[in-house]
Design brief:
It holds the Pfam family Rv2743c. Keywords: Membrane, Transmembrane, Transmembrane helix. By secondary structure, this protein is mainly alpha-helical. The chain is built from eight helices and no strands. The protein folds into two domains: 69 residues; 117 residues, no CATH class. It is 82% helix and 0% strand. Helix 1 packs antiparallel against helix 2 and helix 4 runs antiparallel to helix 5.
Amino acid sequence: MADERTRYFRRLSRLRRSARRWSVFAGGLGGAAAVLTPYAGLGLPDAAWAGAAGSAVALAAWRWLDLRALAAQPAPPALNPAEAAARSRARLVAAVERLPVGSGLLAEARRVRNRVALRGTTAGQHWSRLDRASLTLAGMAPRLTGLAEPAVLEAADADRSLRELAERTASVERALRLAPTDARASLTEAHRTLTAQLESGVAAYERLVVAAAGYLAEDARPEPTHPAADRLTEATDLLHGVASALAELRAVDRPLRAPTR
């Protein structure tokens, strides 16, 4: 989307072109009406020429008035380079997101960028573990419904919280490398505390992913026999029983029917 200054000048240019165009139409129609009316006399065609010329003159005048009113307004200030670059990136991201695979590409690009930003820090290792666990959970999320759905929502909140904690831990670690000797003790203790929280949080997230996989495994585990197989077995036994009963009836009935002479 263009900024306010660009839209202002575009609208100004459109009004100027429109005013010039209607001025040309008004001049042409007015000249035709001025020539043809005395030549052919007053009639219905002459009224049409005159009406068209008058309408064109009125529209041209309105366009010039709109142009003057807009030109009298001060132009919006130009964006500084940082804002212009930010808006360009936003337009590029919006264009990529409209592609069929745009969201996945952007998510992967952000993941790689964050991993590179944390490279060389203790938090980077935990970030990589969290990435693997979150990707695994994302693959299972569409099937984690019903009783497991609240756990998926809780995992999403925990993922955001752990990533913020990882960035905070990395910032403290970078500051620790630059800190003077007298300030290292407090920063070292803070870094140790944050690292321990991050380690325990990532481990808990991994346990949640393992539990989700176990839930899916139990939910999808087939029964020893399918209900349809049980019904077919019962029907088969029934048919065997009926066949045996018919065979016995034939055996009993055959001696009773002695042959006649």
